[in-house]
Design brief:
The protein is α/β, with parallel strands linked by helices and about 350 residues long. The protein is about 35% helix and about 15% strand.
Length: about 350
């Protein structure tokens, strides 16, 4: 880490663009990682994090909350969340060793900065930071899909993940046979009611429709609504321009946050409805959403064994079509060109 110990102030852009941080964008072989080939890096700006806390979480992160940042990178988002909320603990999981080291360096530097700053000269945010559990911030190197991290993920009450633009989807290859988004959705399903998950790319393809939308469909069929329709509520927020991110981009393009809130159900296990087989009991009786053996989401109906139709929303259908087109045509640019021709 000696390369970072410089008298000149380190900007967010400088660190994010350094080879030390971006090396794993292309390969994780330097870490002897066998489960994942690469790990794309990018982060929200401080203003972007502030908007997430204010718009999505309504500044409601409390003293009994445990914040977990999945793919925490250089730790900037994690430190800001710990600094400006009253959370009990803030933990980051990062698969790349270099980024973990940078995050630990930033944490130590920021703590030293606060220790040297007099109380009278501190602004309000710094005073809040000094009174909260900032010193319990912890960044650990590891793969969040590893079973050893299951207890940590299930202890979370606030989860954050920057999975923007399919970096947890088709852009990252894993050795498990599932995308990282699928693992993330499965980890959320295993959390306790009240847990909130914030992502920068929708997980609706894996989680399906939320409980409110499903119950509307159930009511349209003159059936009884139920809390066991599925295990979450969903809400989408417009954070603003892509300029709120380290990677920037077109000012006209928008950045969205997707919030999933774990809901109470009749049982201790997450449940959902979604069987499309005629006359199947699964249309009225829920199926366990998590496989108890591998702790991954299961789409098989417990009554007929057929794959359930968790969502028929236009978004899910469109994303599946785009992913298929991307695989067939050699990339996202092919999809864009195809759209332009149609227009």
């Amino acid at each position: 880490m000696s390369a970072l110990k410089t008298e000149k102030p380190l900007s967010l852009g400088y660190v994010d663009q350094s080879t030390l941080v971006t090396k794993a964008n292309h390969s994780l072989r330097c870490n002897n990682n066998t489960k994942q080939d690469n790990a794309q890096h990018g982060t929200l700006s401080p203003e972007g994090v502030r908007r997430v806390l204010e718009m999505c979480l309504l500044n409601s992160v409390a003293k009994d909350d445990v914040v977990v940042d999945i793919g925490s990178g250089t730790g900037m988002v994690l430190c800001q969340m710990a600094a400006t909320t009253s959370c009990q603990k803030a933990v980051g999981i990062e698969i790349d060793r270099n980024r973990c080291n940078v995050a630990k360096f930033y944490k130590e530097w920021f703590q030293q900065y606060l220790a040297n700053k007099s109380e009278c000269s501190m602004n309000m945010d710094a005073k809040i930071l000094k009174e909260t559990a900032f010193y319990s911030v912890h960044v650990q190197e590891g793969d969040f899909t590893d079973p050893s991290n299951m207890n940590l993920l299930r202890s979370a009450t606030v989860m954050y993940c920057n999975n923007f633009n399919e970096i947890f989807g088709v852009r990252t290859r894993t050795g498990t046979g599932y995308t990282l988004d699928y693992h993330l959705a499965s980890a959320f399903a295993g959390t306790k009611p009240g847990t909130r998950l914030i992502t920068l790319e929708s997980l609706n393809e894996h989680l399906g429709d939320d409980v409110d939308l499903l119950n509307k469909k159930i009511a349209m069929r003159n059936k009884k609504q139920t809390c066991d329709a599925t295990f979450f509520k969903y809400k989408k927020f417009d954070l603003g321009s892509l300029q709120l991110t380290s990677w920037g981009g077109d000012r006209e393009k928008r950045l969205y946050a997707h919030m999933y809130t774990r809901t109470e159900q009749s049982g201790t296990h997450p449940l959902w409805l979604g069987c499309g087989t005629d006359q199947c009991e699964g249309q009225q009786n829920p199926t366990k959403a998590l496989d108890e053996v591998n702790n991954l989401l299961t789409r098989e109906c417990a009554y007929c064994g057929q794959e359930m139709r968790l969502s028929r929303t236009r978004y899910v259908q469109r994303r599946k079509m785009e992913i298929n087109n991307e695989a067939d045509n050699g990339g996202t640019k092919a999809i864009v060109r195809k759209r332009k021709k149609k227009v």
